[in-house]
Design brief:
Layout: E1 2-8, E2 16-22, H1 26-35, E3 42-45, H2 48-55, E4 79-81, E5 86-89, E6 92-95, H3 98-109, E7 115-116, H4 117-124, H5 134-150, E8 154-159, E9 163-168, E10 178-179
Parallel strand pairs: 2-3, 4-10
Antiparallel strand pairs: 1-2, 4-5, 5-6, 7-9, 8-9
Length: about 180
């Protein structure tokens, strides 16, 4: 855990202290919140990357490139639009949360590869210390529902006790998947 005091000034108001803390686990964040209760406003984040996203504005978004429909011979291409965070299939699209986007992108990088829970925690949540499977299962459940809503034949299959893989039940090779 790390912490820093920051004085913030709002327009026309006096500065006030803000305590910023980085704590990797929910247990540490709860303990820290209890320790500094009523001391100052508290901003708790799980990683320095999360803190940077909040404090440092990202580069201005580039203008979107014109959408070019790259389709396989039968038009079945699952794509992810990074700029808008949507999954697209046969002209239909569905909005993705940040975790859904990151998980689907990761699964699409190596279709048919079994991604372990540890690998997914490290690459999607950026935290190798997370244990358990409930958070991964929750995001997979939402993604399965959204892929089903799109009508895609692509699904996320569980490999019991190990993790997940992306599979296209119509075309097992999944050659037309790409993360854009």
């Amino acid at each position: 855990m790390t912490g820093a005091d920051v004085d913030l000034t709002t327009a026309g108001q006096q500065a006030f202290p803000l305590l910023i803390a980085v704590a990797a686990t929910p247990e540490e964040r709860i303990r820290l919140a209890e320790l500094v209760d009523d001391v100052a406003p508290l901003l708790l984040v799980s990683s320095l990357d999360e803190l940077r996203k909040l404090l440092v504005p990202g580069p201005p978004p580039e203008p979107p490139e014109p959408a070019i429909a790259e389709q396989s011979s039968d038009g079945d291409v699952l794509t992810i639009d990074r700029m808008r965070s949507v999954a697209q299939w046969r002209g239909r699209e569905v909005q993705l949360t940040e975790l859904e986007h990151d998980l689907l992108t990761r699964l699409m990088t190596s279709p048919l590869r079994v991604w372990t829970y540890d690998a997914l925690h490290q690459t999607v949540w950026h935290n190798r210390h997370l244990r358990g499977t409930a958070n991964v299962h929750s995001v997979v459940k939402r993604l399965r529902r959204k892929l089903d809503d799109l009508g895609t034949t692509v699904t996320i299959d569980a490999v019991r006790g190990i993790g997940f893989r992306l599979t296209d039940h119509q075309r097992p090779a999944i050659t037309s998947l790409r993360a854009g």
